[in-house]
From TrEMBL, chain B:
GO molecular function per UniProt: ATP binding
Signal peptide: none
Protein name: ABC transporter ATP-binding protein
Matching SUPFAM superfamilies: P-loop containing nucleoside triphosphate hydrolases
Family per similarity comment: Belongs to the ABC transporter superfamily.
Membrane association type: Peripheral membrane protein
Domain ABC transporter per the UniProt entry, residue ranges: 8-258, 275-514
Species annotation: Shinella curvata
Coarse class of the protein's main subcellular location: membrane
InterPro entries per UniProt: AAA+_ATPase, ABC_Ni/Peptide_Import, ABC_transporter-like_ATP-bd, ABC_transporter-like_CS, Oligopep_ABC_C, P-loop_NTPase
Pfam hit, one: oligo_HPY
Amino acid sequence: MTPLARSAAGPSATGWRPSFAWMKVLAAAPLSAKLGLFIVASYVAVAISAPWVSPYGEAEIVGSQFEPWSARFLLGTDNLGRDMLTRLVYGARNTVGIAFASTLLAFAVGGVLGIFSAVAGGWPDHLLSRAIDVLMAIPQLIFSMFLLTIFGMSVPVLIAVIALVDSTRVFRLARALAMNVVTMDYIDVARLRGESRLWIMRREILPNILSPLVAEFGLRFCFVFLMISALSFLGLGIQPPTADWGSMVRDNATLITYGDVTPLLPAGAIAVLTIGINYLIDWFLDKSSGLREGQ
Amino acid sequence: MMKPGILLDVSGLRIEGESGGQWQEIVKGVSFQLDRGEVLGLIGESGAGKSTIGLAALGYARPGCRFSGGQVRFEGRDLLHMPENELRRLRGMRIAYVAQSAAAFFNPAHRLIDQFIEVLAVHGFADHAAAAAKARNLYARLGLPDPAGFGQRYPHQVSGGQLQRAMIAMAMAGDPDLIVFDEPTTALDVTTQVGVLAAVRSAVRGSKTAALYITHDLAVVAQVADRIMVLRHGQTVEEAETQSLLHAPGQEYTRRLLASDPVIRPERAAECHLLEIDNLSASYGARRVLDAISIRVPKARTMAIVGESGSGKSTLARVITGLLAPDTGTLCLDGTVLAGGVDQRDRETLRRIQLIHQMPDTALNPRQKVSEILGRPLMFYKGIKSEAAAAQVAHLLEQVELSPALGDRFPGELSGGQKQRVCIARAISADPDLIICDEVTSGLDPLVAEGILDLLSTMQKQSGKTYLFITHDLKIVAAIADTVVVMKNGEVIEQNGRDAVLKNPLSSYTERLIESVPQMNSGWLDALIAREGADARNPEDRRFP
């Protein structure tokens, strides 16, 4: 488990009473939130059960190139004769999995450093902030292409590079949010008690900035997604024969010339997931800002 | 039918507020009438609905509130059912509003006079020169320094009291028939308050302007109001002429408000000193805020530190606790020299000095339950865990006269007074020797504040703790302090026993602080102004030329 996920579990464990309250909350959620939840849940289900639900193997060549939609190949085949539906299902697994891992890592690194920067102040803050500024000054895509070229293209490197690039934004947000909390008297109280910096970060600050951070998590998740697809489309992301939505668009792009919508399906899958996640975030923001009102 | 001459007629006003999806009545059938040129004071604790009523006089309900009954008639026209564009024509010109916080009211990016002119321009008066002349006129009338040049400044370039008066000038821009003053002096020092009160009075006296003056301070409203209406829980307790209300209150609640000045406790002599501060200086960056301070804090007694805002009293608290390291000088607690910064002090030293903040809202983490807030120091200093801690927390809550059941709540679910009690409980949970109280009662209603003072003094009797009480309220000083330190511009200008300082002040500054405390008789302000002359009316103007 990454540090962020662990620390996120701390406050929620003490803040939420174990009960069936969440079911009530869910029932009272607006339609858009339920839709979002349904979309995300079905993607996750498909990603997990990919080997069982897909008709063929991930890289298995089962027919001739660019076969049309038929009973045998529900969505036709791709440029090498692999089943589109199978590739789509496995793509969910790869693309979503990598996006989730990179976002999590980005939040662990960026979040911790951002809160630390706000708490520490002085020169550590300056040093970190300027370093992040330098990173942010380099265009994201070019910077990641550059790093991927140096370190080679493997899934762990891909995750690390995307996380690094994305953590700069998370750092900025976490630092700004934590800055607002650091000025509160209860932080002074904790410092006067002699609490360690880690305790102040984890127990005094994190719970108070968690909801905007979680909201941002959802948004960044979508961006990471688009970035992976963009990198794959350029040939720098997930490498063949692993199925991934970005490269599927690239590989089959020629079909569009013939009026076939198949290459747009992976793009559509990305779009639908993005919408689903955003519905969920809207709902979450709505809930948490309501909470804040009551404080 | 209405009598002729009545300007504002509020009858059976009911307003509901929404909380958690449910509408609850917060104003329950309030009625009053206001003649031209008359000032009605609305007084009550927080939650009494006085601000809500004040806004209703503008035909306005805050978001989350709605009118559910009754009428508000301005010159016979019902404001509650008036179209929004007609209301807008009335507001600002015929009915004006003065808010509590002038700093939040002004746009920091524009000069004061431009904001004044805008009020008139919005309502269709295009003559800028005439509007500017009017502004200068009003600035002079409200006693602002350099009326000709004052308007050229930006809001941050003038003091809090001056800004408040500039806001009153803006309210008077359209020669309104009615001005609603919503706690215009609550956020100010006593000495600054005098100037603003004088301005409020010159705004309403001798003109046909009527006013609603909303406050929780009976002594303040006695200076400006012709009649006073006491509100509680959204209902009228009583309404009477100022004189008769002060001298013959008809209701028990009013009597309690009148008697809400704290009980005077006798001054006690000190046997030895707990904290010795020698030649202490501190600064924020290049600006020196404390200059060669030497103070002896007597053990098991209460020492009050008084002074206007900016005199360095809160900074002194920060230095004593270690949040701000001093430039020079020593702090000596019980014979041991304290390290400067909080990071260099050991846990035991930190435990011995506890600070209670002014605003309990920001001093309690909104995401921690009361039991967690109180349990942490127990665990941190004494290693008391789980069940033993739960028992201790319950005991602590009982000590500060709260129900142990509150331990399960978040701070947001407590009232202001309850929150401050939780802060006190947190301070005593560390079993400290010295408790620094930084304006602990200034954010609270008088009756609630009195309860807190009682609690603190009872606890001192039981456990012999030493209090350092930072305040600008000399009523509190008179009630609980044993010794007093008077601070001005980062220096100690007087340090002595309480009775000596209050009865025979050595400096004119101390004298002015004492005189500026509003007295519960309606002639106090007049007498003060007559005695001190126009110059003393706005003492802050001399500091901000």
